[in-house]
Amino acid sequence: MNGMALLSIFVLSIFIGFEVVSKVSTTLHTPLMSGANAIHGVILVGAIVVAGRSTSNLELTLSLIAVILATVNMVGGFVVTDRMLEMFKGKKESATK
Amino acid sequence: MSRNIYDFIGLIAAVAFILALKGLSSPKTARNGNLIGAAGAALVTLLVFFYEKPAHLVLIILAMIVGTGAGVPAARKVKMTAMPQLVALFNGVGGGAAALVSIVEYLRLGSDASGGDVAATIFTVIVGCVSFTGSVVTFLKLQELMTTRPVVFAGGRFLIAIVLAAVIGAGGWVAVSRGSVPLGVLAVLALTFGVLFVLPVGGADVPIVISLLNAFTGLTVAASGYVLQTTVLIVAGTLVGASGTLLTRKMAQAMGRPILGILFGAFTATPQAATGAADTRPVRSGSAEDVAILLAYARRVVIVPGFGLAVAQAQHTVRELADLLTAKGVDVAYAIHPVAGRMPGHMNVLLAEANVPYEQLVEMEEINPTFPQTDVALVVGANDVVNPAAKTTPGCPIYGMPILDVGLAANVVFLKRSMRPGFAGIENELLYDQKTTLLFGDAKASLTKVVSALKAF
Q1: Among the three residues B199, B234, B268, which one is the final residue of a domain in this structure?
Q2: pTM
Q3: Shortest Cα distance from B198 to chain A (angstroms)?
Q4: pLDDT single digits (tens) B256-269
Q5: Higher pLDDT, B263 or A14
Q6: Cβ-Cβ contacts under 8 Å, B229 against chain A
Q7: Measured distance CA(B385)–CA(B249) in Å, rounded
Q8: Which of B43, B158, B369, B384 is the most buried (most CB within 10 A)?
Q9: Which residues lie closer than 8 Å to B247 by C-beta, 6 or more apart?
Q10: Which of B236, B268, B300 is the endpoint of a domain?
Q11: How far is B241 from B192, CA to CA, in rounded Å?
């Protein structure tokens, strides 16, 4: 894909990023931050790609470290966000009681 | 698998991330939003194995097992009180991973790297490394493994300016020479800058810095996506970068803190004289029975929960007290400061855990006008969010932060462990006020005593 197409995707994504969180309530700031944090764990895809293509031991070592770190970010991030939100669900049930 | 199918499934994942962020903005859809995001991430991770058919498959899978083994138990077992620093840590490792990915790709490309690749690599290495060490320092601050006060030393301003100049210089060196040694030097300098950047930030501003570093990591992921020509990384990274920037601004507004002041605090901070010797002014401390009587005769009681309540795991006891008072005909409400706890929305998470009825949780703007009609404001383990210094002392670290006006209530009761100042490290004048009663001790133990005194009453 050429640079211009990638740049277009980048610019349009900025606007979507602003738009989707424009109405978030203070209550959800922490879970939202945590959820966004988990999403950038998708760098795991990049880590797997570079690990798979690596041609020297140095590249392999560094990229495997990247795989470990990215997995922690992605998997841990989604799990901890879910734990936070689970409690919000409990709150709603008690509110309707 | 063809490139088209790969890109198409990448597009599905990108849409999933957009829906995830959208879902996370509303309480009703938040949990599903997070699950959609997780599904998108899982889909694209699985897919890359089929498309790339990577070498070293066993090692990669082993590394993923190690990562999962470290991340999941930490996420499951962390106490809700310690959650902000875990998020900071997860963010830091993500930034570190993005920097490593770019470094490896740069080494592999060698002289094949285009000008754009080199520029994106320099950006990723700088910002990813800053995000990594910066997040580690915020973790240490929140975990109280180091001081929560701003760390400012003589010449610090000078040092940080030099390191920043060196980072920029090393970036230029990488661009010109395209060697691997300059890139290593750049990484080390950027790691150092990350530490220096966060050290002068005061404890109360740490959540904003976490949010900002989160946005930084998003942008580094987008830049690595450019180098690797992977659309889903660009979209996901940019979404997080943009939404994270907006979120940072909103958080700063909720706390009444200027973002630029926090960011460039590193450049402008001057060493402050240590706060004087421990204050020896008299305070009025009462017994649990005194507090129980005060509460029983009140018509309206506002409970101000803070981090101390969370640390003592006293959510359930405070609810028992509230139920008891309600049964006696007292009007009870909880005043929730936007940044009560350690992060915006943190206290809502903690009280939801104790099943406190949603309608009793009142936000700051709504509850502040009602304090003059309140007989007792019961402050449980909170300090900075009720500290009038935020209004009266220009230049103190929390100056300008909106506070709960508990001082307007007829009586104020503080449940505190000690006279130790709050997280931001500032003395609270309200503690010495005539209408203030202090009950020292662990929040849970104190509340239990008040509850039994009230039952005996």
Answers
A1: B268
A2: 0.80
A3: 19
A4: 667 776 666 655 54
A5: A14
A6: 1, 6
A7: 19
A8: B384
A9: A21, A24, A29, A32, A33, A36, B211, B215
A10: B268
A11: 23
